[in-house]
Amino acid sequence: MSERTLGIAVIGLGGAVGTTMVAGIELLKLGKVDKTGLPLSELDQNSAKDLAAYERIVFGGWDLNAENLAAAAEEHEVLNHKQFVAVENSLSKIYPWKAAVDERFLSNIEGGNFLPSKDHREVIKNIVNDLKKFQEICDQVVVINLASTEKLVDESSEEYSSLAAFENALDAGSENISPAMLYAYAAISTEIPYGNFTPSVAADIPALIEFAEMQNVPIAGKDGKTGQTFIKTVLAPALKARELKIEGWYSTNLLGNRDGLALSNEDSLRSKIKTKASVLRNILGYEVEDHIVDIRYYRPRGDDKEAWDNIDITGFLGQKMQIKVNFLCKDSILAAPLAIEIARCLDLAKQRGDSGIQEQLSVFFKLPMTKYESPEHAFHIQNKHFLKWLNA
Amino acid sequence: MSERTLGIAVIGLGGAVGTTMVAGIELLKLGKVDKTGLPLSELDQNSAKDLAAYERIVFGGWDLNAENLAAAAEEHEVLNHKQFVAVENSLSKIYPWKAAVDERFLSNIEGGNFLPSKDHREVIKNIVNDLKKFQEICDQVVVINLASTEKLVDESSEEYSSLAAFENALDAGSENISPAMLYAYAAISTEIPYGNFTPSVAADIPALIEFAEMQNVPIAGKDGKTGQTFIKTVLAPALKARELKIEGWYSTNLLGNRDGLALSNEDSLRSKIKTKASVLRNILGYEVEDHIVDIRYYRPRGDDKEAWDNIDITGFLGQKMQIKVNFLCKDSILAAPLAIEIARCLDLAKQRGDSGIQEQLSVFFKLPMTKYESPEHAFHIQNKHFLKWLNA
Amino acid sequence: MSERTLGIAVIGLGGAVGTTMVAGIELLKLGKVDKTGLPLSELDQNSAKDLAAYERIVFGGWDLNAENLAAAAEEHEVLNHKQFVAVENSLSKIYPWKAAVDERFLSNIEGGNFLPSKDHREVIKNIVNDLKKFQEICDQVVVINLASTEKLVDESSEEYSSLAAFENALDAGSENISPAMLYAYAAISTEIPYGNFTPSVAADIPALIEFAEMQNVPIAGKDGKTGQTFIKTVLAPALKARELKIEGWYSTNLLGNRDGLALSNEDSLRSKIKTKASVLRNILGYEVEDHIVDIRYYRPRGDDKEAWDNIDITGFLGQKMQIKVNFLCKDSILAAPLAIEIARCLDLAKQRGDSGIQEQLSVFFKLPMTKYESPEHAFHIQNKHFLKWLNA
Amino acid sequence: MSERTLGIAVIGLGGAVGTTMVAGIELLKLGKVDKTGLPLSELDQNSAKDLAAYERIVFGGWDLNAENLAAAAEEHEVLNHKQFVAVENSLSKIYPWKAAVDERFLSNIEGGNFLPSKDHREVIKNIVNDLKKFQEICDQVVVINLASTEKLVDESSEEYSSLAAFENALDAGSENISPAMLYAYAAISTEIPYGNFTPSVAADIPALIEFAEMQNVPIAGKDGKTGQTFIKTVLAPALKARELKIEGWYSTNLLGNRDGLALSNEDSLRSKIKTKASVLRNILGYEVEDHIVDIRYYRPRGDDKEAWDNIDITGFLGQKMQIKVNFLCKDSILAAPLAIEIARCLDLAKQRGDSGIQEQLSVFFKLPMTKYESPEHAFHIQNKHFLKWLNA
Predict the structure, then answer these.
(1) Would the CB atoms of A36 and B315 count as touching at under 8 Å?
(2) Cβ-count burial of B213 within 10 angstroms (0-12 exposed, 13-18 middle, 19+ buried)?
(3) Which residues pair with C254 in a beta bridge?
């Protein structure tokens, strides 16, 4: 693998996923954990040769909570005791930068480590400064958005329709511009790749896609495909291949961490459910009459997450059958390695000179960004496209 | 689709799956059911053009039970009342031919409709006669084995090692030659394709593979991939793609039909479990330490079948997670359409002049027959190979 | 058992549960089904001696849908074909009486078989007339409410607080008086016992409790305890007995029949969820922090109903464990026999001279009516009280 | 509660359950855990007044493994890190006494800390010596058997039929006398109560029951009712109360600790399954046609245990329904508090002068010992009897 230093600047660094990314890489450097769960860890030498080595990754990032990452790791309870002891010292030295914030897009906010100004241009300047300082110690920086889900915006807004309109809206202090968009704008303007692991609208508006192409910056998103949707996009194509008709798919999710709390806000929840619901039609070629997705904030689970899916299918002679899938998973444990791989791939794309939407990274996302066509959701097809690109 | 008449000669015609095949095609002809559950029913016109039309399929076959198929359908309770009424008349005219039988390979046998002789050559002659008579009303005949699972044989036996050795064993009345082998031999000798939907050892011995190649006959098998293994070969490759380590996979099966009763015989059970257990290593590239497969005869279910799978996985930072899949399915409803498609594909292979093992049909089997290499089990790869052949 | 004729007048006669009650009793009379599922069918002779014989039950009742019960049975698909054929003739002779209706309490209404007037007193007069006519052919009539759930009302309303206030509200045409209350008033005024199988507010307001006591009429309710809550009130006391702390209980329900459609109305849903949520505190003696109940209208299931419960418990040393219960049930099959038993017990109470709230029937209800104390929810305690009364 | 010191002498002290008992009580003494999971911790003052205080319990016991309990706790991974640190010191001072052992009754044995002699009388003398030394520091000693399950013996053996016959067999060095019986004999001879938490045959043979009565010693057993059977004996009576017919009950168990390994021995497994299978007939009053119990040694789980139960029921009109229960539990966490309560209750019985079989402790056992009648299995009835005794 490449010996270059890759710097990942995480929006929401002190969250459960961000902390897990940092702690995981530190533990890897110390040889205290192996690479299980990192999707690209078993590539042959040749495929992996231009990807940054896991051990050469360094972290920075923003968070509303000013506490250092050792304190964050203690709160999120993602590490076991031995792991915590091993990385406590190095984590305690990482303090998040001041975050951009806007209550119109995210309520349920806790923590006071934010940028004072409400002037969009000034916020961007601050973010750019953070990035430039970070660039001094890395060969390449990539921004990954792991912040709590913002409320759904009207994506057809005139202000998002072109770079020019967006620049005007920035100057005018438009209230339609979200923190996620400011981060994306700042990254692109600094020629830094941007990956959106959240369902929030960010670099996926026409204005920022245009900007990314102009700046020759690769962007990718959105909403990491970790648990339930991952399984859904694996099973649905196979049921289709057997021509088993899906009559209903009821998906429920229980989650108890800070992300769950954010989703207990109706607006954020709507944003999240939207990205979960659109996959089946694309894969099956027909509308599932009853496709219901439910997400619940359920405290007993903490960072553990549970998905229960019930699938009603009709087979030969019109006979009905059922499949139920119960996935007892850990949100951060599934998400952190994907976020790391997205960063490595965006770095690779940047090296190769690829710019704009990186559609081949669809395999990592619930709602893949595409330029012209509707996205491919079937996992095995996404993976085929991805591996082809990787080995190009 | 082709206007030719395809005759399917079913070993075990009066069983639940055989009856469902016949009733299903009759209901299709009458327009009483649609093609849901038939995997190749949604192919575009071009891909499907040389496949026999579903409506042009006719049935014959052997069964130990002499009753006509209307009586069999009533016993198996696979059809609902309206469906039964619609096809009762046509089913009542189909009487199974006398079956080959050998208590050394299958105990728990019921029914008296069998060939009297224990002389292998005479049994073969009878089977060939049945097939020749059936050929008179079809453009092409294909034999599909749906009989109850025979006990496991020692596949390395000298008598199976070459066609010459096998011919000698036939003449000598060897007790290592099973009914399934006699059917396969008879079909191949008559230049009729042979598909093995059961786990029994049949055309997969070297002697009969050699014979099939010599006779220019396509053969395929074995053990139809309907429920649990289907799901297993869909999920395992995706977990591998995410580098989630599978520590254990516990699979239990409850089934209550005549097949379940046959499997309550220890020898047949061993044969069945063997075909179920071998898939994971192939897909994952490592041995799952605790891969347990359990099959139980459980009468309350009748033809309904239930699979419960528990999968223990390890992810990033060595953290453990679990996936549980509960598949409430109907054995015959899943199996019958696959058996129909295998027959149509073997007919297509015969038209194209393909002979010997049809490896591209792996997508339909739990334990795909291959000539040189170990079989591919990952469902999406099997399907890719299959579609490529179909569209060749 | 008693040789008296018991007439059950069902509100919502043509619904799935009502139809199942009638068809079930008719099938019993014909000897076509046994008494499985009828909770009091295995009582010893002595305990059962004053209960009306199942075979001596006759039915009448109201429904918005004017079609006869054979047509209703065909629509609800509760009977198998043989059962339908056996009772089609007798069911086709039963036509529902015109129902009371009020759109303020129940939207999603279909059917035109309702009483024209909006004058409360006139509606009551009509209901009383129906009951008096029905009394002519029975030794005793009991009214059972099986109508769709009405929207939640403010039970502390002044108009419900005493019989006098309620009478005034009736005269004034108050819009707070629901159809369910009119039926209850009519029954009580005619000295006919009234059982409420639904979550709607009816005889459980102070005014009607007072009226029932004055008229010497037994009443009981409410909301039949069929599936999920039944299991919940069985498991929770046992977990308490082991001092396993319940941290969270997530209950989801999928149902696809007309009742499910009614519950897709927000107001009715709130009424239903309220009766489901209150049971745990009573049994455990503490508040479960995350007790979530979700009910979804999910069409693929039809009358089949599914409950999935996830229970998070903490045991010794603060260690966490989970129990998951998946109940694949049939709504009408569970509800109809309970409704029959409630009617038989109300008849028995009437014979014994018991009046007012019949608390000993709590074993049949999700939200038992009580006079002074909060209700007992633990199933085994309810059953103990019930059996003691029965054998008194 | 009583201020007396209760000494619990555990057979299999260093096992997962034994270690959890000791560590749990130590943590309680330190105020580091609360009493969650201890069934009798919430009794009112009066009911509990003669039970030994949890904080006044001390431990001793035998184990094949000589390591101290701190080492055992580390191996079993039952404690979290903070808990381990808190009790490491006190646990490290407890070393198991030399255990009795016999390969005819328990293979898969590991560890060398056993009594050298095969002379039954000498083994008994050693055990008695251990007990007498332990008595010096306690007001009352109770023996609890937590050793791995021994192979099934023929309980009708002549040698077990009376105390006299058993004494002769002891003298003759009979090979039908198991270590579990020697411990029971030694305890009873020393007037120390004996509780059997395992399925092994011990004090439940006529000879030892006779001996216990003669010595005025209370005994109880057997096989702690922790997980699956607990749930089974809770659900089955409720299904019976609703007259829902149980057609089949399929119970599977996955467990990965040392107990699971012992059960991978066929003989021990048979012993265990026997105690699990007998409960349904007793509760239901009829034989469930397909009641299947499966137990699997499955390493990925470690001390975590999983039960999956599938229940097939028939309701009104002969319609079929299913209930599935998935219990993700921790063996030692459920077992240790029950073992503690059994010891406290045996101590109470001894104080009260109760001798012989303590049938009222059935609530704690899968296969309750009874003197004349067949045991009661329904959980709520067992609990009623138990509470009545406790409050006597």
Answers:
(1) yes
(2) middle
(3) C296, C306
Cα distance from N-terminal residue to C-terminal residue, chain C: 16
Boundary (domain end) residue, out of A329, A346, A371: A329
Q: What would the mean pLDDT of D353-373 be, rounded to a whole number?
A: 93
Residue D250 to residue B296, Cβ atoms within 8 A: yes
8 Å CB contact between A375 and A368: yes
Q: Partners of B97 in the beta sheet?
A: B62
Claim to verify: residue A255 and residue A191 sit in the same structural domain:
no
User: To the nearest whole angstrom, how far is the Cα of B254 from the nearest Cα of chain D?
Assistant: 9
Rounded Cα distance between A337 and A320, Å, is 38
Please report, for the domain that includes residue A111, its CATH number: 3.40.50.720
Subunit contact B254:D250, Cβ cutoff 8 A: yes
Beta-ladder partners of C144: C10, C195
Q: What pLDDT is attached to residue A274?
A: 60
pLDDT band of residue A116 (cuts 50, 70, 90) is: confident
Q: Per-residue pLDDT for chain B (392 aa), expressed as one digit of tens each? A: 678 899 999 999 999 999 999 999 999 999 999 999 999 999 888 878 899 999 999 999 999 999 999 999 988 888 888 899 999 999 999 999 999 888 778 766 677 888 877 799 999 999 999 999 999 999 999 999 999 888 888 888 899 999 999 999 999 999 999 999 999 999 999 999 999 999 888 899 999 999 999 999 999 999 999 988 999 999 999 999 999 999 999 999 898 876 666 666 565 566 556 655 678 988 999 989 888 888 888 888 887 899 999 999 999 999 999 999 999 999 999 999 999 999 999 999 999 999 999 999 999 999 999 987 889 999 999 999 999 999 88
Of C81, C326, C328, which has the smallest distance from its Cβ to B81's Cβ?
C81
What's the domain range around B338? 6-224+333-390
Q: Are residues C151 and C238 in the same domain?
A: no
Q: What DSSP character marks residue B118?
A: -
Of the candidates A83, A234, A328, the beta carbon closest to that of B317 is on: A83
The tokens for A170 are 């920035």
CB-based contacts of B77: which residues, under 8 Å, 6+ apart? B302, B303
Q: 3-class SS at D326?
A: strand
A216 and A239 fall within a common domain: no
**B270 has a chain A CB within 8 A of its CB:** no
Return the residue in A81, A83, A304, A324 with the most chain D beta carbons within 10 A, the one to mutate for interface testing. Answer: A81
Listing from the earlier edge strand, what are the strands of the sheet with A140-145?
A57-62, A6-11, A140-145, A194-196, A218-221, A356-357
Work out whether the CA dihedral B64, B69, B71, B74 comes out positive or negative.
positive
Residue B1 lies in a domain: no
pLDDT-based confidence at residue C124 (cuts at 50, 70, 90): very high
- A211 with A185: CB under 8 angstroms? yes
Number of domains within chain B: 2
Look at C308 and A248 and tell me if their CB atoms are within 8 Å: no
Which tens digits make up the pLDDT trace of D118-173?
Answer: 799 999 999 999 999 999 999 999 999 999 888 888 888 899 999 999 999 999 99
Q: How large is the angle between the packed helices A228-241 and B228-241, nearest 10 degrees?
A: 130
Return the C-alpha torsion angle B6, B12, B13, B16, nearest 10. Answer: -120
Q: Which residues of B touch D312 (CB under 8 A)?
A: 300-301
Q: Given A282, A313, A329, which residue is the final one in a domain?
A: A329
Would you call C298 and A306 a contact, using CB atoms and an 8 Å cutoff? Answer: no
* D284: Cβ contacts below 8 Å, ≥ 6 apart: D236, D240, D246
Q: Is residue C310 part of a domain?
A: yes
Chain C positions in Cβ-Cβ contact with residue D33 (cut-off 8 Å): 316-318
Based on the fold, state whether residues B232 and B150 are members of the same structural domain.
no
Q: By C-alpha distance, which of B351, B388, B369, B391 is closest to B142?
A: B351
Reading the block at residue A301, the tokens are: 């689970």
Query: Do the domain assignments include residue C23?
Result: yes
